[in-house]
Each structure stands twice: as C-alpha cells, then as structure tokens.
Specification:
Strand 13, helix 8 and strand 14 form a beta-alpha-beta unit. The protein starts with a strand and ends with a strand. With about 325 residues, the chain is an alpha/beta fold. Helix 3 packs across helix 9 and helix 6 packs parallel to helix 7. The protein binds NADP nicotinamide-adenine-dinucleotide phosphate (NAP).
C-alpha cells in the first residue's frame, strides 16, 4: 500500500509518500480502507518525538473508511461497513489496521469526513470533563486551547451540559468563532491575560475548573484563574512546552488535579458507549466539528505543516 512514512523524527518534511507492506490483522483485527484521516494534535507530537521502531513508520491515530477485511473472531463490524477507527499508529495510509474494540460503525446520515474526528476529539473531551473531572451544570470551566479538535469538542459538550464556558484561542477572530460553538466568553490568549479576564468574569472568585489542552508557560496564569478548591484537568500539551505543576499553587488553593488518556478507555464497554453515542449525536446534528481544510493523503507533509503552523480552526483532514 501507499502511506505517509517517516524514518526519523522532525519537522513535517520528514514525511514522505512511499510504499510499505499492507498491515496484517490478527483474529480480532479490522482492516479499514481509509477515506479520511483526521490529523490529531497527538499525531504532530508523535511525528516530532516518537522514534520509529524499525524502518519506515506510519504515524496517525484516527481515520474513517470502509472495512475490507476482518479477523475470524470479529463481531463488532462486518466487511463493507463504514467505520471510524482508532489505533496508536498507522492511520496515514491507504489501509489502517485496528482492533475491533476501536472500530465504530457509522450511523446513517453522518458525514464521513466529520465522523473521522469523533473518537479522540469528542471522546476525549467527554471523558475528561464528565468521568474524570465531574463537571456539573452551572459550573464555570475555562478551556485553554479551545480552537483545536479536542477544544471545540469540549466547548460544545460543556455548554450543552449547562456549564458556563470560557474559551481561549489565539487571534480575536478565532476566539470569537468559539461563541458559535457555545462559549459564553472568549479570550485571545496571545493578547490578553487569561487570569485577569477569568477573575473579572467570576467576580474575583475564579473558575471552577480549567481544562488545559496546551500546557506550557501559561500554567501560572491558569493557576491564578482557578478558584479555591477548584479542579485542574490536564489533557494535552499542544504548546509543545514542558509543563509542571507548582506545589505552592496546588497546596495554597487546595486544588484537585486530574489527568486522563482516553485512548486507554475507548475500547472498554464504557468508552465504546460514549463514542457510539457521540456518533449518533453528530448524525442528528447536535454536535459538529469544523473542517478547516482537506489535503490529499499523498501531501501529508503539507497537511502536517498547515495543522502545526497555520492555526486552523477545528480539524485538518487528509482524503485518501
Ligand atoms: N489526554 C488525552 O486522552 C488526549 C486525547 C487527544 C489529544 N490529546 C492531546 O491534546 C492536545 C491537543 O490535541 P488536539 O487534537 O486538540 O490538537 P489541535 O487540534 O492541534 O489543537 C491544539 C490547540 O492548542 C492551542 N495551543 C497551542 N499552543 C498553545 C499555547 N501556547 N497556549 C494556548 N493554546 C495553545 C492551539 O490554539 P491556538 O492556535 O489558538 O494557539 C490549538 O488550537 C495534544 O497535546 C494532544 O496530544 C490528549
């Protein structure tokens, strides 16, 4: 098959379009003919930091397409069925092999391009907000890094659950667009003080919860923005900067810190039920993911460069 491959970590240009062996599937494996690849924030980090094991490595967590082969123990999906699918690597290719636990049949009426984004964006946001951090209606949540895939999903789900959402993005235009997805207030994190705005918006009290998708140097601002006995929810490090929690902040405010990795939960019956419900919600039009741009899969280097550097709003996809 043809795939976007790299043999060393680095900038988007390490990705080349080449020929590799078709992936093999075991008894519980599902082979998907890829239609759309959703470029995840984690794909960019993997390309930079995850060493290729032996020979050409195919990066990528997530894609949607049609099932073309199944192992003899597979019961969740059938050949010919349209699915979105997750694995820790391998999506940037014509064929994507996943375990059946991570293959999700698409409901009728759903847009396959948009569906390719669901498990790691909406699934992560849902699990982080509700299962791990226990968001309640009426609470105020700050979503830091809200214009990316996980962020836009979190803004929608938190607002629909009755929370007041404060969302950050760089650039006034992009942060304003977050209001269309349910943000009550938006902050341009490149131009404004996040802490000052959050304190002003909460009568000096601070927000109940910070969902941090970016990490890095904004940590001190985020800690100032949280109320006494608030929650800090660590989801990602999209800033690419090292991220440390300060002992003094944690103790003096009696904060609770939650970390979560949805990839470890997605294949459980609970995680599967979450993703399947989110797919139904998307098919019904209740949630959506803006698709900023679609590149041909053969132009993965350009697609990664755009996703990493152009500040897209929502997801960048590749079409096979
Ligand atoms: N824990 C989990 O289970 C899980 C699951 C999925 C993803 N993740 C992680 O979550 C992160 C985001 O993933 P994604 O797919 O949403 O990525 P994405 O679509 O690339 O979005 C990342 C967002 O982060 C923002 N950002 C980058 N640097 C920032 C900074 N210094 N300050 C504030 N915001 C900043 C960007 O906003 P601006 O352009 O406005 O700066 C961008 O919209 C990644 O680190 C990924 O690995 C974790």
């Amino acid at each position: 098959m043809q795939a976007a491959i790299y043999t060393r970590n680095g900038d988007p240009d390490v990705l080349t379009w080449g020929t590799v062996s078709d992936p093999a599937i075991g008894p519980t494996g599902v082979l998907v003919k890829v239609a759309y690849v959703s470029i995840e924030g984690g794909d960019l980090i993997s390309r930079r930091m995850t060493p290729p094991a032996n020979g050409p490595h195919v990066v990528g967590y997530q894609a949607a397409g049609t099932v073309v082969a199944i192992g003899e123990q597979v019961t969740r999906v059938a050949v010919g069925q349209k699915v979105c699918a997750f694995h820790w690597f391998g999506s940037h290719a014509e064929l994507f092999a996943v375990d059946q636990r991570h293959a999700f049949p698409l409901p009728d009426g759903i847009d396959m391009a948009m569906a390719s984004t669901v498990p790691t964006t909406f699934g992560t946001a849902h699990d982080a907000l509700f299962e791990f951090a226990g968001l309640q209606p009426g609470e105020t949540v700050l979503v830091q890094g809200a214009a990316g895939g996980v962020g836009i999903a979190a803004v929608q789900l938190a607002a629909q659950a009755g929370a007041r959402v404060i969302a950050t993005a760089s650039g006034a235009g992009r942060s304003a667009r977050l209001a269309e997805y349910g943000a009550a207030e938006t902050i341009d994190h490149a131009a404004e003080s996040i802490a000052e705005r959050c304190l002003a918006l909460t009568d000096g009290k601070g927000v109940d919860m910070v969902m941090d998708i970016a990490g890095g140097r904004a940590m001190a601002e985020l800690m100032r923005a949280i109320r006494y006995r608030g929650r800090y929810l660590m989801v990602g490090i999209a800033s690419g900067e090292s991220t440390c929690l300060d002992f003094t902040d944690m103790v003096t405010k009696s904060l609770t810190c939650h970390g979560t990795l949805f990839g470890r939960e997605m294949g459980t019956p609970r995680g599967q039920a979450i993703v399947e419900d989110l797919l139904r919600q998307m098919a019904a039009g209740a949630i959506r993911m803006p698709i900023d741009r679609v590149f041909p899969l053969s132009e993965a280097a350009a697609a990664h460069r755009y996703a990493e550097q152009a500040h897209p709003f929502g997801r960048v996809l590749m079409a096979a």
